[in-house]
Amino acid sequence: MNNILITGATSFIGRNLLRCLLENGNWKVFAVVRRGFDSKKLPLTSRYLGRMEILELNMDEYGRMPERISVPCDACVSLAWNGTRGAARDDHGRQMDNYRHSMECVKAAGILGCKKILLAGSQAEYGIMHGMTTEDSDCIPNTEYGKAKLRLYQEAMQWCMDRNISLKEPRFFSLYGEGDNPDTMVISILKAMLKNEPCKLTRCIQTWDFLHIEDAVRGLMLLLEKKCADGAYNFASGDCRALREFVEEMRRVSCSESIPEYGSVPYPSTGVVNLCPCAGKLQRETGWSARISFSEGIGRIIKSMEKKAEDEKDIGVDSYL
């Protein structure tokens, strides 16, 4: 059995990856969570006893991980990051803290003996994109978040190369799925559509690409388990089209009578972001391909929302919907 260290274990990606690793049966997981974490976000069932240990450490304590883990680790997945949404994305101090703490995580993983590190990246590293985006496209980030992510990747890559440690950076574009943050576009718009409420939106003329979390986690598992090239890997479905088409597809799948109010929300000062990523490297190196269509993914989210509403109704909690 291999030992793996995961930071950000209660995040959207972390929870789904953790569940997959535990169900796989070949991994013992050291799940690093913030102090005072919500235990409901982790799969704490008797099925996984002995195969998961929880370490409560804040990001500024990552240098202490080798003190808390008494056995060598084979791999590390670094997912933790503070301030990925809203104004925090341009908070220079916060993003530099993320960079420093994540670099400490990489170094701690090296001390623990990890020979493979997956470092969560972002489409924000590319900045304003024009046309198809591959891993060879220029990286000109226009947010502090993107700059910090890119700096971390570049410095961690050099650090790992000097020590013969494999480092891969999955660059996530737009993930979605059951249990995602309620403030994301997909979840917030679906909630309004299921209530037949108006949906306030930008003009939605930008090109977009959505990748379901299950497909993303499968890609991460392949990067962990297969021998493949180091470096950045775009994580995207390849279904690139105008965002307005996705909104209309959500309306069809949800059978909603909502009226999308296109143009009622202005674009940010950083400009219109168009996503047209190519995940060809991930496909070539691992054999991966996206399996879940956007319609299927939206249907899954709706079922999840409806089940949650029923469960909350049964225990007397105000409905999520």
Automatic annotation (TrEMBL):
Every NAD-dependent epimerase/dehydratase domain range: 4-234
Domain of life: Bacteria
Spans through the membrane: none
Xref: Pfam families: Epimerase
Listed name of the protein: NAD-dependent epimerase/dehydratase domain-containing protein
